[in-house]
Amino acid sequence: MTAVPRTRTHNRRQVLVTGLAATAALATSAVPSVAAGSPDRSTAGSDRPVRADLPTARLPRPTGPFGVGSTILHLVDRSRTDPWAPDASPYRELMVSVRYPAAPRGAAPRVPQMPAAAAAHFGGPEGAAALNLGMAPGSADWGATLSHARQDAPVHPRAGRLPVVLYSPGLGDPRTWNTALVDDLASHGYAVVTVDHTYEATEVEFPGGRLATMRIFDGAPPSGPDAVSALLRKVVAVRVADTRFVLDRLPELNRTRFGDVLDLRRIGMFGHSAGGFTAAQAMHDDRRIRAGINMDGQMDYVGGALPDGSLLSTVALEGLDRPLLLMGTESEGSGDYRQQPSWAAFWRNTRGWKANVTLTGSRHASYTDAQVLLPQLARQGAEPGDGLTAAVGTVRPDRATAAGRAYVTSFFGRWLRGHDDHLLDGPSGRFPEMVFSR
């Protein structure tokens, strides 16, 4: 959610990739909305065969000792009318995936990174590939990328009780846009619950192939800083409410779907961009979350300008009494906590354990699947419009992947398992790309 200066024209893609603070420019050319269940020009016929010559890419294998299983759940919150599309559903509907350590590989096929209709829309003109990454519509076969998880595989009998970690994606991104990191964490013995924020993500696929596409700019788009700030507050409030609803449902799901293997006394959360803000704010608002990671997500509501510390969130103003790791990038307006007003305020006000690492040579999307997928696609001729470096920086994809996995696993190992590998004690010779701040 790093902001960018307003000295040049911003299109929708540039705005979404920079996150919440730059929502104003996107609002001026609002994304066309599609109610759940209604036809969508960009997804009609999405089940047609994809051209065999389109570029494809692979996700790296998980590094943990376990295989990975996946269960997809459709959850309905009957206590809320959908805040973005009350005409589409009387209740708030969410899609979540649970990744977990699975028994040795069986007959179940590997799960695609994205379901078919969602993948087609993701790669279309109004999908996150175009809006957040600058990829030309139809330039890659996003549906061909497989995860390393197997659908509904049994939980590994030696995995024991599983700490639970929630994941919230960036603004516009689907819950599947950090599959490499999520699968890796699950392979180390965690149940990882990824949450789609319906009508804010560019697409969410429900059972039967029904798509719900972005509608956060329906009606009169906000045209000034105050209106944009109000929208940002609503975005975060809806996300936190989604998170707390999922937390409410976990005990029942644990009993009915997971054989009581989820350890609900050990819950963490992480997220990228707006999802990082969501993780921190949800921790502030709900004590069930014991530890969290914010990946490059500012924690204020400034709209239309660089954040200046004037509209801080309550988590920035009041801090936390539980551990939070800040993971920054070298995107413009980002960096370590001393370069971001909301992070600096959080740093001063928090009472819990805290640390800050910054990935050298990175960009805002470096903590997502973009870091490993885009270079592969670029080698096949499908490059982001502003170039590969503008999208994912100069850091080597394998080193960025290894560092991100190591720091996330180390953090949750320390605070949810009590296993401290000391990676977060200070600078590490294993990962010189990570600049450490305390």
Give the overall average pLDDT. Answer: 89
Total helical elements: 12
According to CATH, what is the topology? Rossmann fold
Helix content: 25-40%
* Biggest β-sheet strands, sense, barrel: 11 strands, mixed
Q: CATH H level: which superfamily? A: Alpha/Beta hydrolase fold, catalytic domain
Unreliable spans: 1-50
Any idea of the CATH class? Alpha Beta
Number of domains: 1
Element order, helices and strands?
A: HHEEEHHEEHEEEHEHEHEHEHHHE
Secondary structural class: alpha/beta
Share of residues in strands: 15-25%
CATH architecture: 3-Layer(aba) Sandwich
**Widest sheet, order of strands:** 3-4-1-2-6-5-9-10-11-12-13
Any overview of this molecule?
It comes from Streptomyces poriferorum. The chain has helices at about 10-20, 25-30, 115-120, 130-135, 180-185, 225-255, 275-285, 315-320, 340-350, 370-380, 390, 395-415; strands at about 65-75, 90-100, 110, 145-150, 160-170, 190-195, 205, 210-215, 260-270, 290-295, 325-330, 355-360, 435. It has about 450 residues and is an alpha/beta fold. The protein has an eleven-stranded mixed β-sheet with strand order 3-4-1-2-6-5-9-10-11-12-13, with helices on both faces. A two-stranded antiparallel sheet has the order 7-8. Helix 9 (about 340-350) links the parallel strand 11 and strand 12. The two termini are about 20 Å apart. The model is unreliable at about 1-50 (pLDDT under 50).
